[in-house]
Amino acid sequence: MFDILSRIRRVGSLSEPLPAPDSDTELTAIQRELHDVFGRALCIRHVDAGSCNGCELEIHALSNPYYNLEGAGIRFVASPRHADLLLVTGPVSVNMEEALRQTYEAMPDPKWVLAVGDCGACGGIFNANYAVRGQISDVIPVDAVVNGCPPGPLAILRGLVHITRNLDRPRP
Asked: Could you give phi then psi for residue 121, rounded to 5 degrees?
């Protein structure tokens, strides 16, 4: 134990310093705008409609201390009945088509859908396959799309901001 303590004393702290609390980065601006629109009450239901899990890793990064999604009042919920926004990843596989449709129908109005990743936007590399129905908009209406394979957490936050800026606009 003394060996470990002496090594810690010799090397010191290896972690990065905390960012300045008043730094006005793009991330804090996005979090502030989301907070202003939703008033700390945005609930997201995530559905993986058949993706490779690359987008899921980026979505999980939103919960880390750097992006601090919960600190902005945005949280993931287990039931679509409690959700304001449906976040869908991957192309819609044949097995997930009906489940995705039922999840969307179970959400209370008003409801928004954010398609994340190239697979959700256009089917990606999995499109034109016997096991895939195609892009998400072929099954349910989509309000916004976040492109990328996979898109980063900041791009997903930008997609949330895009939806918030168009709340009053009717769906096509």
From this structure: -75, -45
